Queue: 2 jobs
Job 1
Amino acid sequence: MSETKGFRMLFCIVTAMLATVLFAIGGNKNWELTGTNDWETGTNWDPDGVPASVNSDDAKLFNGGTARITQDGQSAQSLTLAFGGGDSGHVRMESGSLAISQNQTLGRGGTGTFTQLAGTNTAGADVVLGEQSGGFGGYYLQGGSFAVNNGHIRVGHLNGSTGEVVQTGGRLEAMTSNKYLYLGVDAGSTGSYTMSGSAVVALTNTENYIFCGEYGTGTFIQSNGTVAVKSYVMVGRRNGSTGCYRIEDGTLDIDGWLVVGEEATATGTFEVKGTAPTITVGGQYSQNSLSALKVELNASGVSPITVSGAATVNGSLTVAFDGTDYGDLADTVTIINAAGLSGTFTSTNVVAPLLGVEVVYDVGSGDVKLTNFEFPPTGTIVLIQ
């Protein structure tokens, strides 16, 4: 045998052995325990060994167990919590860090949840909460940072799926441009986002959007905290979708547009409660004929939607009062303050104890105002339904 042939044969053998080793190293890492134990313990996984993205390991939990993260440097190629009906899998991050180089899928078919008290969770691609029919995915962010690199956040993905995010603290951030937060992606899906406390949602790169109801049903409830969006917030985007955004306190800062019902048969509802919130829109406000603006006044009025561009109104307006002493309410309350104004609401609804109100469209100033409030005479008992 010549020296050249011998070298080629040796090279082929070494290459084959290396490929076999790499195949053996990479692949599924399945969580073995049904209770709660440490992610960082190798014997808790099958095959043994802590998952690692460098080994192309896919971490999977589907037997009802909970992996607890407390140390820095944890990783995997992908993370899947629950595959099918009856499956469940859970992660609880108390401290430390987790870096998933590809997708994080919670509730592909069963129930998958991720609870984050502190630390840093980084997704290298899409985050999916509730992927297939019957799948439920929940993310519960109490502290720390959840950073999504180069991926969308899909809360309720395919028909029949349900996803939710409950954020009471910490920071959720999209790290790259052209990435979106979807609530209710496909028709028949349901997605919700509830935030309170000191929570921060930062979608501040170019072409970052929030879609409450892409084709399905999406709901965003902001009781407090800060939401910053570089591009649009669309509440009811595609035909047949249903979306709702309700703000009770905190700050909603949109560089682009606030769109309530984009396509003709999309139904959106934007709700403002009291005077605690701050709502600023750098672009325009737009509301289609099937959508609604709802405002709930207190004794001081209601926070206006402040729009740097023009506002186009349509659809319905609902005015409610929170039941406090309405004797101090101003004669006129501004609900939209824009640079320009077109359109009118096709219907105005009042909720007891309010008996009536006049809507004023001030085209010159770009404002929509409420005046001539009608309340029951003092001492009258009103049944609030």
Job 2
Amino acid sequence: MDKRPFILLVMVVVGGCTLDKIRCRTDNNCPQGMVCGEGSYCVEPEDTSVKTCWTGDTVSVTAGLYHTCAVLKNGRVKCWGNSDRGQTGNGGVSEFLPEPAYVISLESEVLSVSAGLRHTCALLKNGGVKCWGDNEYGQLGDNTTTTHIEPVSVSNLNAAVKQISSGASHNCVLLENGGVKCWGRNDVGQIGDGSTIHQPLPVDVSGLKEGVEMISAGYYHTCALLKNGSVRCWGDNYYGQLGDNTTISRNEPVSVSNLTFGVRQISSGGSHNCVLTENNGVKCWGRNDTGQIGDGSTTNQPLPVDVSGLNAGVGTVIAGGYHTCALMLAGSVKCWGDNENGQIGIGSTKEARKPNDVFGLESGVKNVCAGEKHNCALLSQGGIMCWGWNAYGQIGDGTGLQRTKPVNVLCNE
């Protein structure tokens, strides 16, 4: 009797492309990282358990281009994913770090972390900032363009920092006095100092020395939410992401039209922005080729428009590279936009121009972050779950497998 494993390869043709589906009888018939699921096909395993070593230990989670970092309650930081420029801060250079590792030389001193394309910055408890990773444009703020695989102090801040936000290769900080400073890449005016000269040290943003409530950096632009509830943006405007009804880039802040009051929170993605309104609804504007605006179209929007079905009930909005997510007041998560790598979290790579419920996150989510093609959620009862593209290990589950549904991040001690 032939005792070879039972494996039947079924070829499904979709839109001219061939997708492989593997039939199975047991998990042993499936590729590594998959199990024999419904219909006797190999599928990604569902992962709903809570990893106890994260429980109650994580303060926040942030996602960069292809890496992710978490701040722990003890003030330390763990990062994972792509570290080709040392952006995970573990003292080495690697394109594939699929499990969390401590950032070295940051001991019990971090309040929050912000991740850029290939660099990372940490806001310290003493109001200072340290950055590490790629420094081609001076984005580490140490007055050099030398890449550092360990954290270095940002110079010339001259005041305590309240918040930090990282773009592709620039950073901005909100000071305790309500002013804003930025540094790093500035070829399209994303620093906001009236020039297009790269800045290896923090400089003041024109006209924003006070009165700012929150900042958010996109890839090549930046926005600020003012204390009066209005919004100003500066930098690249190719897709209308500055919200002034033009596509003219600006090296100084300009007001976003139709948002003169009532904004509670802002988030900048690759080339789009979204805001939380006073009635807990969401408006977005800018690039929309993958439906990241959420209005059901793929037309770029140079002015804020309502996100379909999200006129109320939203707690926080989070803009990623080419997609967007919303953390609802009820603790569930919805996402929309680019889904090529499963970053919408619906168990497939189906198009999503309007908000969709993320599988398995119907309640109990405390915080969400969005990278270019992946997302992570911090659960209120402990644990971190991520989903989307995983070629660099940015999901943190110990594999390089793409995940179209949330899976648990490993919790190495």
